[in-house]
Amino acid sequence: MSLSCSALSFAYGREPVLLDISFRVENGTFCAILGRNGSGKTTLLHCLGGILKPDQGRIELDGLDIAGLSRQELARLVSLVPQESIDIFPFQVIDVVVMGRTPFLGLGQSPGRDDYRLAWQTLGLLEAGYLGQRNFNKISGGERQIALLARALVQSTDTILLDEPTNHLDFQNTYRLLGRIKELCRSRGLRAVAAIHDPNLAYLFADQVVMLKEGRLLAQGPTEQVMTAEWVSELYGTETLLAEVSGGLSLFLPALIQKSRS
Amino acid sequence: MIVKVLILLVSLTTMILIGGVPAALAQNERKIMDLAGREVVLPSQVKKIVTTFKPATLCVLSLGLADRLVGVEDSSKKEPLQLKVHPPLAQAAGVGDKSRGVNLEALVALKPDLVVLYAQKDGLELAGRLAALGISAIVIFPEDFPGLVQSLQVLAEAVGEPERAAKVQRAMDRLLNLVQTRISALPVDNRPVVYYASPQDFFSTASGQMLQDDMVVRAGGRNAGHGLSGYFQPVSPEQVLAWNPDLIAVSRRTAGSLGEVLNRPEIRMVKAVTSKRVYLFPSDLAPWDFPSPLTAAGVLWLGVRLDPDLFRDLNLLKEINEFHAALFSRTFTEMGGRLADQVTP
Amino acid sequence: MKLQAGQNSAPGLFADHRVVIAAILVLLALAFIFSLFIGRLESGFGLLSRAWEAWKYKGASGLAENVDWLVLTSVRLPRVLLAVLVGMGLSVSGAVYQGLFRNPLVSPDILGVAAGCTFGAALGLILSQVQFGLVRLSAFVFGLAAVSLALWLARLIAAHSIIVLVLAGLVVTSVFNALLMILKYLADPYSQLPAIVFWIMGSLHRAQWKDIYLAGPLIGAGLVLIHVLRFRLNVLSLGDLQARSLGLNPPLWRIMFVAVSSLIVALSVSTCGQICWIGLVVPHIARTLVGPNHERMIPVTALTGGLFLLVADDLARTLTTAEMPLSIITALAGAPLFAYLLYRNRGGGWT
Question: Which of C6, C246, C350 sits opposite A103 (nearest CB)?
């Protein structure tokens, strides 16, 4: 049971963005997609989510080619937490979260009591119940991310795609959120694929890492194998060290930090 | 120094002489007062006239001055009456009109002796500009009966032939008196109520301040919309029913919608409709409910329709023919005119 | 109306939107009955008692001949019904457009429907070959043509962009307004031009049952459809990316909503002329009362719109003996109200 993508290629008009990407994410796995800005992370996520149609290659969910699925069917299998949320009407957060039930609603249907209950429960799960009745436009960027994550969870899919989920989060909430995602992967058997820009976060939380460099697959595989100083240096084009921190933890640091400190 | 003084003296003298010449010539010109209270200087001979709105054109034509018209407002180049009275009008220059704007250049290019303008703000402004260009312009206001008579007088005076206006006025007064003498005995409160359907829409009528209201009164009726004020006012079917007019006079332009309107259940109950006293305002040549000397004919026609018994001794068509002959040197029927006031059921 | 269940309280003025809906419904019913009894002809119970007498003594045929009954059923009833219908239609269309374009300043004429209708009417009024009854048809056809043109133009330029759609609408509106100017210029200033100006001004005073038969079913069907699908407006307002991820096909839904709303507006304008401000202000009133969630806001918009136009029309026909153009009242009431609502809702996060 997995999400697999083989020989995926995508171009915006004549400009190629992704070239021959293949990897596979099993159930219960948290996969991080690393890369510099503009390396194609968001495009890859959008292809996986069926938002963009790849020029070549196949994407399969549990053996089903997603190209053959309707939008609504796909939405029941894959959810997306976008990078940014535009200002919309001043909806209440709970109303935004409950929209995750859309793929399950018939044509003339609206969310019912059960749908709302699920939405409240999910917010509670993320320790964000207090957000429920707040104005979506007025909460902080980080709180919006949590609300959108709640919505993705309410969508009850096996796969969640996240685009830079920790962008607006503060110090401790970043770790909290990623920890939560990992825990959900374990407890519910979810597959989470997150585009992350900080290699350390990937190192700490992801089970699997996919490295994208200029639209091509640089490396992919289990975290221990891929997250080495050599690969990270190659990915970001700058010499990187893996420094040991107390408690058996390590952090990646760019080598030039030594120079600036001396 | 002395040279400078000499030059100054010479220039001053020249200017006085040059200025003086036109002043001397001006002794041959005439001055009249137009209806906007402006003093207008006119050339001794007025051979070329330009009009800028339809009522003015109709006034000029009724004064028998058709052959002096070198420029008219655009619409008169196509109107049946104007063309029947003076066919060359089709080739006359069009200068725009009151609503859309008058083309100053086209006007000036005609080098007219007299331009006839309307009494709205831009008409007055135009008159001033023309005066500055040395072109005589008079402002008239033919939109009600007194104004119509005064406009005819001013126009006739402007061409130096006041007896023309007197002739038209006599013809108009004759028709108006034909009605006045017969209706004077009727008590005002008993007079029939008339609903006038305006050119805008059937459900729009003339207020008490409009020409058509005056016409109805002179014809021996009472205008249903007399209590309204302003221009044409929209009214609901309910209001028409409430007024319950004895006669309905419909402006020709609105005739197209009559079929649909007369079928409405509430309109079918109106007195004028049940007694089949719904008429189109004549004629098919030119509308008689429109500001022009023909309104006198409109009053006579309406009077006859309102109370046919009172006018049993009168031959309507004969009077109309003579009226047109007095104004246009041709009778109504000669020009192919028909009353065409019946509403086909 | 399926009332929303849930544990959430509304961000609008009123906690329970059901209370608001019930209140407006009651007001609307009262206004409806009241409106039937005011008017030029003597009103009130005198009218009813005379009608009753007629029926008592002469039966059904007596009733048919009775003037009071006739005024009630042939003049006032269709007019009042039309006011409510058009008020609902224009308001809900405005709400749909504001939701689709995520812009509070949008009104139903944004895609050129009103401009097209007005041009079509003017064309019908000028061409002597066109019978009077067909003027309305001409207005309707050109109204739809204008919207179709805007949609086609937008598709040509950039199929999925909302901004392009708005710009295309702007272009189409300007083109039709220019064409209208040409028609006004060519029109006979003494008869055709006043008729055109008169038509544009917007009024219900010619309302008859025929209008209800022609426009009623379609406007009603459109309103029902929008009501049933109103949740999708919430999702669409999140933007194309998120709407897609939730399983919708945004361009398709947009076209659907635009088509239904435009149909409603075209029917309304071709029946009654242009009535401005109501499509812009009433959705704001509804949002102020029950919040922006379309689930709650659409029914409130419809009811409020019906009430608003009904009251405006009552004023238009009773303030003076003549009829005032409706747009004067809706503008004089609507514009300051709109300004006040914007002020009140400032800082709400989307103005």
Answer: C246
CB contact under 8 Å between A90 and C293, yes or no, is: no
HEC letters along C236-296: HCCCHHHHHHCCCCHHHHHHHHHHHHHHHHHHHHHHHCCCCCHHHHHHHHHHHHHCCCHHH
Mean pLDDT of chain A: 91
Nearest CA in chain C to A101: C246
* B286 closest CA partner among B95, B99, B83: B83
| pLDDT tens profile C320-339 | 777 788 888 999 998 899 88
Using a 10 angstrom Cβ sphere, with 0-12 exposed, 13-18 middle and 19 or more buried, the burial of residue A259 is: exposed
B253 touches chain C (CB under 8 A): yes
- What fold does the segment set B32-167 form as a domain? Rossmann fold (3.40.50)
C11 touches chain A (CB under 8 A): yes
- Confirm or reject contact between C299 and chain A (CB < 8 A): no
Instruction: For chain B, positions 103-162, list CB contacts with chain C under 8 A.
Output: none
Please give the tally of structural domains in chain C: 1
- Tell which CATH architecture fits domain B185-328: 3-Layer(aba) Sandwich (3.40)
Q: Verify whether the Cβ–Cβ distance C321 to B269 is below 8 Å.
A: no
C41 in contact with chain B, both atoms CB, cutoff 8 A: yes
DSSP assignments along chain A, one per residue? -EEEEEEEEEEETTEEEEEEEEEEEETT-EEEEEE-TTSSHHHHHHHHTTSS--SEEEEEETTEEGGGS-HHHHHTTEEEE-S-----S--BHHHHHHGGGGGGS-TT----HHHHHHHHHHHHHTT-GGGTTSBGGGS-HHHHHHHHHHHHHHTT-SEEEEESTTTT--HHHHHHHHHHHHHHHHHH--EEEEEES-HHHHHHH-SEEEEEETTEEEEEEEHHHH--HHHHHHHHTS-EEEEEEGGGEEEEEETHHHHHH-
Report domain extents, chain B. 32-167, 185-328
Q: Which helix (H) or strand (E) holds B224?
A: none
Binned at pLDDT 50, 70 and 90, residue B272 comes out as: very high
Local structure of B197: helix, strand or coil: strand
* Structural domain that includes position C76: 17-343
Q: Does C190 lie at the interface with B, CB-CB under 8 angstroms?
A: yes
For A200-257, the pLDDT digits (tens) are: 999 999 999 999 999 999 999 999 999 999 999 999 988 888 888 888 888 998 888 7
Q: Is B264 on the interface with C (CB under 8 A)?
A: yes
Domains in chain A, CATH or no CATH each: 2-222 (3.40.50.300)
Interface touch A135/C11, C-beta < 8 Å: yes
For the full predicted model, state whether its pTM sits above 0.90. no
Cβ of C295 and A132 within 8 Å? no
Determine the pLDDT at residue C347.
64
Residue C203 lies in a domain: yes
DSSP for A90-120, written as a single string: --BHHHHHHGGGGGGS-TT----HHHHHHHH
Three-state DSSP class for residue C347: coil
Peptide bond into A110 cis (omega under 30): no
Q: Are strands A159-163 and A78-81 parallel, antiparallel or unpaired?
A: parallel
* Identical fold, B32-167 and B185-328: yes
d(CA C348, CA C291): 11
